[in-house]
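Worked problem 6 (solution included).
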Amino acid sequence: MEFETWKAALINEIETVASWQAERVIADPNDPRFENSQKALRQLADQVKALPADNAALKALFREEQEIANLMRAPAGEPENRYRDAKEELLQAYGFEDEPFASAELFLDALRAKTDETISEYRLRV
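Solution. The predicted structure is:
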């Protein structure tokens, strides 16, 4: 996958979860956490959009996500699905159960921790 396509997909994932949180605001307007999460996710998406293509954290996450797709000793699609679920869990808790990160780079670092975890697990398999 090309870097710009990947970056656009990451931003889309963030915006999609923000839209889900916006729907939850309508369903439960008395719970301010949904609105807070939705706003935090929109801000995060804007911050990621503003990152230059040569941002170190963004490039590192891109490389590691590509590495997940090429892991040996893993059933086809399993590591990608595991990482996708971990990313979705992080995004759904963003600004809701977990405080928003102070910067987009810190968010990217948290995602890299998820990629590292996934890569390590599959590399350690015999």
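Discussion: The chain has a mean pLDDT of 90.
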